[in-house]
Specification:
The complex is a heterodimer of chains A (317) and B (338). Helices cover 37% and strands 18% of the residues of chain A. Chain A has 317 residues and is an alpha+beta fold. In chain A, strand 4 and strand 5 form a beta hairpin. The two termini of chain A are 34 Å apart. Chain B is of the alpha/beta class and 338 residues long. Chain B has a six-stranded parallel beta sheet with strand order 1-6-5-4-2-3, with helices on both faces. In chain B, strand 5, helix 5 and strand 6 form a beta-alpha-beta unit. The longest helix of chain B is centred in the middle third of the chain and has 20 residues, at 156-175. The chains are: A alpha+beta (317), B alpha/beta (338).
């Protein structure tokens, strides 16, 4: 097992983009559940969103803050952060100080499948999670699992327990509003059409003005309607698609980072690296090196073998 | 001995269609789905929503079902598509007929081994089979995505007819003698939802009503593990040979024949009383059902649906082998509403 305060030589990453601030990834693991990582963060990120439910727990360093929607919430020993799927958020950090975090990206379907009451698709009741002794214990055990460079049978069970406890905590602290809020996404045909256009044109230099025109809306109306329905702007949505595609390509293909950048419509590897680092938190080349995948991480691509460090048995070209 | 099997994963929520479809295709690694739907849904919001739910890696093909298309032609079209690009899942959506044909396509393609996703629309779900001896497992979709919002604004009369069919399925399942407590529970719940909501739909197109009726449709299908009742068999057989559609038209037929079938069956014990109590009456069940169904805005005679004496003869033959209703009694029921 590696220890928190030393020996990051094989799994550490550095993103030093135009300054001396660097963020580090200690561990990244992909599985059927989604993704779990340990990050050392000392720089703020950009506003972004995920398709998954997102949980961030403080492991070490001073208390930081995150902005979830329009609200700034603390992230420290006593308070974790929960972000619902497609909820815009960003990491603000704590000045120059370095903070160690356990970050989880949980697929709603995986959560539903494992739940006794399979009803609520990881829509959290609020962003603040009170770190109870049970949650604290689960965070520590998961962190220990992630720091060990091998797979564990009990990992998914711990992950589910932590997600469930966090989910319940988020609703305990929430005002008495119904969990039954109907999903209002996709209601407008113009937004649906835009979603498909963005997906189809992900690898191009997307002009939002043109997307708006194609779906029959002015740019301001398009942005307003899109945000109303999806919770994020079209730009953040497109960034999410590109981040997902980039991660998938990094972990399941032999494509060079430059090729991945070009396939996603970036003019250079440097601009792609800046984009990836801001949105995912890790430089792409280091992500490829650090991340581990279980067999069930990317079922759409067949059943890839464990791809830690991209060994020779790569699944597709 | 009773073996109770429910092999279907069900998503049920308002607005769940896109996320559920995407997640299921992604989770199971299906990359070449075949979409199967009525051609009159092409370009509709429903179709658009299904397309929005496809993962970006999905390379989908579509086979449209023309209004008068025979199931054999649809199966051939699907087989032809499959020979060009192997299909790894069939996604049938929008109508009970499409879902029913998808089942045949699935059987022809793979002997039932590939997945079938069903996304019901306003006319609900088809019977899992045409008789009680067909394979229950083969008749059910692997994934069922029930999103009541797809039915909002749809023709309420179609929904009422489809819900009468749900009512008939639930009723006949609940009254069936075989021992299956989960199916009994689902049948009773589905029956209650139908009773409470079928008439409400005449007054307002509320999501609560649509949700309850879709839940009833789901319960009705699942409850059919107990078998298929005589009213269903007759309704289904009468609809064959015409361009009548499962769900909407078989529901209209079921409305006409169900009270008569109940009168012939004259069920005994505490079950009819339980159903009567849910309907707010004291019985007998057949009379209560006749009153309940009487003022629905649906066709008043079988002949209004284009059904004639020849169809009647064929339908009676479909009951062959059943002990609960003899041909003469069935004929009397049908003639009374022809």
């Amino acid at each position: 097992m590696r220890h928190l305060d030393s020996d990051y030589t094989t799994a550490e990453w550095y993103v030093g983009l135009g300054g001396d601030k660097m963020s580090h990834a200690v561990s990244v693991s992909h599985g059927e559940f989604g993704r779990a990582s340990i990050y050392r963060l000392n720089k703020s990120g950009v506003t972004h969103a995920h398709r998954e439910g997102h949980l961030v727990f403080h492991i070490g360093g001073p208390t930081g803050t995150m902005t979830v929607g329009d609200t700034e919430v603390p992230n420290g020993c006593n308070t974790g952060t929960a972000i619902s799927p497609w909820e815009p958020h960003c990491w603000n950090g704590a000045g120059d100080a370095e903070i160690l975090c356990l970050t989880l990206y949980i697929k709603p379907m995986w959560f539903l499948e494992n739940s006794v009451s399979a009803e609520y698709a990881l829509k959290f009741g609020g962003a603040r999670i009170c770190v109870t002794p049970q949650i604290d214990s689960l965070v520590r055990r998961l962190t220990a699992h992630l720091l060990e460079d091998q797979e564990h049978d009990g990992f998914d069970a711990l992950l589910f327990a932590l997600t469930l406890q966090s989910f319940e905590q988020s609703w305990n602290a929430a005002p008495a509003k119904s969990r039954d809020t109907a999903c209002t996404r996709f209601n407008d045909f113009r937004v649906r059409r835009a979603l498909r256009l963005l997906q189809d044109r992900m690898g191009e230099d997307v002009d939002m003005e043109s997307i708006a025109r194609t779906v029959g809306l002015s740019r301001p109306h398009f942005f307003k309607l899109f945000k109303q329905q999806m919770g994020v702007t079209p730009n953040i949505y497109l960034n999410t698609l590109r981040s997902e595609q980039a991660i998938e390509d990094l972990l399941t293909t032999r494509k060079s980072v430059t090729d991945i950048a070009h396939d996603l419509g970036f003019s250079s590897q440097a601009s792609f690296t800046r984009f990836f680092s801001s949105n995912v938190g890790i430089a792409p080349s280091e992500y490829r090196r650090v991340a581990h995948c279980s067999d069930s991480a990317f079922p759409m691509l067949g059943q890839p073998k464990r791809l830690s460090g991209m060994p020779s048995g790569v699944v597709r070209s | 001995m009773t073996l109770i099997t429910y092999p279907t994963r069900v998503h049920f929520a308002d607005g769940v269609l896109e996320e559920a479809l995407r997640s299921e295709l992604d989770r199971q690694g299906h990359r070449t789905p075949l979409l199967l739907a009525e051609t009159d849904l092409t370009g509709s919001a429903f179709h658009d929503r299904v397309l929005s739910g496809l993962p970006r890696r999905a390379d989908c093909a579509t086979v449209g079902i023309a209004p008068l298309a025979a199931s054999g032609a649809v199966v051939d079209a699907v087989l032809a598509q499959h020979s060009k690009t192997p299909v790894d899942v069939i996604v049938a959506f929008g109508s009970a007929r499409a879902i029913s044909m998808a089942r045949e396509c699935r059987r022809a393609l793979s002997d039932g081994k590939i997945d079938l996703y069903a996304i019901p629309g306003v006319d609900g779900l088809p019977d899992p089979g045409s008789s009680s001896v067909e394979s229950w497992r083969m008749g059910l979709p692997s994934i069922l995505i029930c999103d009541p919002t797809v039915t909002l604004g749809a023709d309420r009369r179609i929904s009422q007819a489809a819900s009468v069919l749900s009512l008939a399925r639930c009723l006949e399942s609940y009254l069936a003698l075989s021992f299956n407590p989960p199916a009994d529970g689902m049948a009773l719940d589905g029956f209650r939802r139908c009773i409470r909501n079928i008439h409400r739909l005449s007054d307002a197109d509320a999501i609560e009503v649509r949700r309850d009726l879709m839940a009833a449709s789901l319960n009705a299908m699942m409850a059919q593990e107990k078998g298929i009742g005589p009213a269903q068999i007759l309704a289904r057989a009468l609809g064959q040979g015409h361009s009548l559609k499962p769900g909407r038209d078989t529901g209209a037929i079921a409305r006409l024949i169900l009270p008569g079938v109940l009168a012939v069956l004259s069920p005994e014990g505490d079950r009819p009383a339980a159903l009567c109590a849910l309907m707010g009456g004291a019985g007998p069940l057949a009379e209560g059902m006749r009153d309940f169904l009487a003022d629905l805005p649906l066709d008043g005679r079988l002949s209004d649906l284009g059904i004639d004496a020849e169809d009647m003869d064929r339908a009676i033959l479909a009951l062959d082998g059943r002990a609960d209703i003899v041909p003469g009694a069935a004929r009397a029921v049908l003639e009374a509403v022809l």
